From TrEMBL:
<dbReference type="InterPro" id="IPR048254">
    <property type="entry name" value="CDP_ALCOHOL_P_TRANSF_CS"/>
</dbReference>
<feature type="transmembrane region" description="Helical">
    <location>
        <begin position="87"/>
        <end position="106"/>
    </location>
</feature>
<feature type="transmembrane region" description="Helical">
    <location>
        <begin position="118"/>
        <end position="136"/>
    </location>
</feature>
<protein>
    <submittedName>
        <fullName>CDP-alcohol phosphatidyltransferase family protein</fullName>
    </submittedName>
</protein>
<keyword id="KW-0808">Transferase</keyword>
<keyword id="KW-0812">Transmembrane</keyword>
<dbReference type="InterPro" id="IPR000462">
    <property type="entry name" value="CDP-OH_P_trans"/>
</dbReference>
<dbReference type="Pfam" id="PF01066">
    <property type="entry name" value="CDP-OH_P_transf"/>
</dbReference>
<feature type="transmembrane region" description="Helical">
    <location>
        <begin position="12"/>
        <end position="41"/>
    </location>
</feature>
<keyword id="KW-1133">Transmembrane helix</keyword>
<comment type="similarity">
    <text>Belongs to the CDP-alcohol phosphatidyltransferase class-I family.</text>
</comment>
<dbReference type="InterPro" id="IPR043130">
    <property type="entry name" value="CDP-OH_PTrfase_TM_dom"/>
</dbReference>
<keyword id="KW-0472">Membrane</keyword>
């Protein structure tokens, strides 16, 4: 059941793209909101029903990235002025995202699925901001900067985790917890 919710986002991403390209904006924004809602609940459901798996974590990460990518494409098509005005910040986040993924591919041969606490909070803020962009007359600047700041912190943390973790790992709480774990192993506790 939980994996079906995640799988929905994988299937929804191309449908959302089709809706964008065919000008069906109203349907697009409601399905996008549904996709972000399912993103918010699938991890919680997986933990509640104890159905956490590595394939599920990987699918979730891909579905998250595709949903955000389609939302950004929606902004490019329906709110291009906003992104032009924030090109430096958006470009910086994009660079960090690409850097983190390239480093993971080089180090592990696959993308990460850390699902850190910072990533979870950033994803919720991204979802709220990206949905509101399509439902409100103007983007909420404060929410954008808050989301961008936390996204940058999350990406920097994930880059550091890629540098620290010698082997691929899913569902890492964050850098603080990883360093504590390494310290405990080093002290023999």
């Amino acid at each position: 059941m939980v994996n079906l919710i995640t799988f929905y986002r994988l299937v929804a991403a191309p449908l959302l793209l089709f809706l964008l390209l065919t000008g069906q904006f109203t349907v697009f924004k409601w399905l996008l909101a549904l996709s972000f809602f399912t993103d918010a609940i699938d991890g919680r459901l997986a933990r509640s029903f104890k159905v956490i798996s590595l394939p599920g974590a990987r699918i979730d990460s891909v579905a998250d990235d595709l949903t955000i990518l389609v939302a950004i494409l929606g902004i490019l098509l329906y709110r291009p002025g906003f992104l032009r005005g924030e090109w430096l910040l958006v470009g910086g986040m994009t660079l960090l995202y690409v850097m983190q993924n390239c480093m993971a591919l080089i180090r592990y041969g696959k993308l990460t699925s850390f699902h850190t606490y910072a990533a979870k909070v950033a994803a919720v803020l991204q979802g709220v901001f990206l949905v509101l962009v399509f439902f409100l007359p103007e983007p909420v600047a404060f929410l954008f900067y808050l989301t961008a700041g936390l996204t940058i912190i999350d990406l920097a943390e994930e880059i550091l985790l890629v540098l620290i973790l010698p082997q691929w790992q899913a569902n890492v709480k964050g850098l603080y917890w990883m360093l504590r774990q390494i310290k405990k192993r080093g002290s023999g506790r």
